[in-house]
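Please review the protein record below. Tell me whether the encoded fold seems credible here:
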Amino acid sequence: MSNLICSNLEIKNNELYFGGRSTKEIASKYKTPLYVMDEVTIRANCRKYVNSLNKYFGSSAKALFASKACSFKRMYEIISSENMGADVVSVGELYTALKANVNPQELYFHSNSKTDEDIEYAISQNIGYFVIDNIEELDAINFFAGKKGIKQKALIRITPGIDTHTYEAVNTGKVDSKFGFPIETGAGEFITGEALKRENVELKGFHCHVGSQLFDSDVFVRSADTMLEFVAEMKNKFGFVTEILDLGGGYGVRYVESDPYIDIEDNIRQVAEFYKKKCAELELQEPSVRMEPGRSIVADAGITLYTANTVKIIDGYKNYVAVDGGMGDNPRFALYGSEYTVIAASKAEEKCDFNCSLVGRFCESGDILQENVNLPSSIKRGDLIAVLTTGAYNYSMASNYNRIPKLPVVMLNGNEDYIAVKRETLDDIIRNDV
């Protein structure tokens, strides 16, 4: 029997069930390849953060959904109804959130490279906060806010110089990161002074984010330690009282059996205990905390269902099982070598004695979903295959490579199911061609 790494999975009658529903029935109704998401799990994950932050940091604390993990209208509707704000990293994400009727004051605009058009549009939409990443951006915000006759609220992204020992591609807290102003070089102090001089920018505090797929609170505690020391220095240097301190996101999820389970509430409790103690030690009024969960809100709330197309055995070398999707709907193995758990969803109780590479339909040798997958030796064309924990960075990173339409997103909610994102058609592929 395959390993069930998430609590919303079970096996009954040789079949994988997700969110209490038969994957075979869902695949039959909506066809494959298909993203399936469990609304019940999404909401439960939101509540872990909202309730824990309020319990340990107080009612002013706020959870912000890192929407780059999974951005479509229904996601914003769900997180907004669960009393979360969101961070956005593009005008596309901002526009989607606004179309989902998210309060613009609850949106925080990130990105290390915002254009003038991005900034002017966000200000015109009454966005709550910019997270400033460079001095050119500061000047542009000041200019466009002045044109509108407002003072724009902002945080400054600070690089605390912390190595998370995680994937290099998602390690964002080191001094030489492309993101933010490093404390170590004096850049953090410099930009704070500059922001306080701008007439049309209202500096509210600081932001940091140091990495992803973190399984304990050590990195958050070290970040809080460094950032609060910085907050105290800015108070002493400029008399600036920090109202908001955003500690970023990054708590991990279980992709494979070796990944540990993480207790979100207990981890937030640990960070809060240190935070309060540190503020007291530095004689600081506690800044209101923000945290930015993304992956840990949606990853285990999603799976991808595929149909096997071919089984290729190269005697004495290796085996391949090719499915009807691939790197166009999940490029993460090609990008990072990301690990996933794979289950033969329609043969879930059979012995997995056939080792293979699970590959896709795209014309690219790097179109691999996972290496060294063990499936039943009876696997054949037409069998249903599930890749688990795909709710984060799969739909949002999908492409139309080879002009293959993007997958739909079907949302499960107990006994109900509905389409949250429609399957693209061939007409959609050429819609913008002239």
